[in-house]
Amino acid sequence: MSDASFDSKAYEAEAQFGDYFALLKPRVMTLVVFTALVGLLAAPVAVHPFVGFCAILFIAVGGGASGALNMWYDADIDAVMRRTAKRPIPAGKVTRDEALAIGLTLSVFAVVFLGLATNWLAAGLLAFTIFFYVAIYTMWLKRLTPQNIVIGGAAGAFPPMIGWAAATGSVSVEAVLMFCLTFMWTPPHFWALALFVRMDYDNATVPMLTVTHGRRSTRVHILVYTILLAGLAIASAFTSIGGPVYLATALVLNALFLKGAWDIYRRDEDDSENDNFKVEKSFFKLSLLYLFAHFGAILIDSALVRFGVLS
Length: 311
Description:
The chain is mainly alpha-helical. It contains 17 helices and no strands. It has helices at 4-7, 17-22, 26-42, 49-73, 75-80, 96-117, 120-138, 148-152, 154-157, 159-168, 173-196, 198-204, 209-212, 214-235, 244-266, 269-274, 278-306. Interacts with CtaA.
């Protein structure tokens, strides 16, 4: 990972606050914060509002730290990918050294203060999540195997487990189920994106499934993983995290998700290119709603139980 190509770049203007904030991947952080919040609030333990606020804040900071370290290491890839070329480092707004310093500082801050505010199990899970995302996924799997996003998806699946641990000081079946839901959602979500940005991964020589096995194989993988995800999501309605709101949400959204995956499976490359991957982009957008809606339903059902509406 040479810094030469970035250190030699002329930084035309001082970085603004927004450039440093962009290092934290705020859009990804939104998902991290929301799923962690659901894990925290769905736990069967009352958490003081201030403690809960601190827990979510430090989990968010830890997620942002992971994003900064990811951008530090992947600066060479980001520079040649169209969808990432405007990120702060390749755009010449922030140096790699600054991103590294910010990422490491925020990582230590988030882990230590989460431990002090809640418990050290939650802090340990946050530390492991940062390590997994940066070292296992970013530094190793991403450039090594087309299964990068499958295994690496675990990093994005930990936040609800961390939120649950922050509230209870333990990891239970409920936390594992929320982890599994996010873990199984990650591959079809990212492979749908890879279908319409394949040239980015080609140019960056990242072994995404679309590059190593082609779009046809990727479409098959999306369908298979969506079927497995739908089974898990609907079955979870009959577990401790489920309820009537979650069941209704899971039935509707998984029917739509399965239809979208089937539509993608049936496509050929001429159809996709002729309409600029309209079906694939629609599936990707639906995948964003999918996870937010499932976790929102978990939160609503847990609130109904807590207030005595459901037994």
